[in-house]
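Look over this record as teaching material.
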Amino acid sequence: MDQGNVMKPLPQADDARAEGVACHSDRRVSPLRRGDGIRRVLAAAIFAVGGGAWVAAGGSRTAEPETQAPQLISRTGGAGGGDVWASPSELAAAAKAGNPRAMFRYGEALVLGDQVAKDEATGIVFLRRAADLGEPSAAFRLGKLMDDGTALPKDSKRALGYYRAAAAGRVGEAFFNLGAAYASGRGVKRDYAEALAWLILARRAGIQNAGEAQVRARIQAAKRPDWLQRGEARVAELERELDSRAVKEWVDVAEGRPPPPAVAAPAAPAPVRVRPAASVALPSVVPLTPAIGPPPAISLPTPEFKPTARPAKP
């Protein structure tokens, strides 16, 4: 990677320093360069089990207890590729024209002060707009800023909602950060089975890390094979859950906004039921009432014929 074009990482969270957590930095290539777009280089995320965690900067080891929370990785959200712009003004124009990907890139550049004047407040506005339009990398970035308390008030619980929205858009780092959160109880109750499921999804999304093996080892040490079975079975359930909503709908869930009302299909008209006429049984022979018989005999008086007297001849 061209080190002359590496973005400066976001400040590390104060609470992480106070706890002695090895905060992994990441490197960002400017979103304005052509080629592969933003090249995301993930720092190696090592769970602190038994011997401590690697410090990304120097490669030395720091002694940490076995219960040390795993460190979340990546502050960027999303690997390289996608749209690229030749200049800050071109990127800004695309963002202001409503391109969700450009909104994310421009918002990120403003938060970092990368080739534009640093303006965290305006950058957050563009990131929120992009997330509301369903840009998963913007959702991841907002979640990481909330998780770190950088440019946004620290809120690890709310950050998980944004990670879930990013996971619905198949951002690999979001899968990992959700797994790390469940493994460490960061913003949520610790649940190794749930952590394992998210880390399996992270591996399938191409995130290479030791997290899954570490959680499996912890489950084995706890002698809870049921956790292992539940975690592996949970993978398919999580995929169905993520696919049940669009990214922007998961953002609404993270923000506590009511989901848009479902548009019901027009009801089909009720079928018209024609009641058949009652059948009337007719006799095969219809008797006539009263019965008609032969006409009665009529007796007529017999006419009497009297001979007419002929006149006498003269």
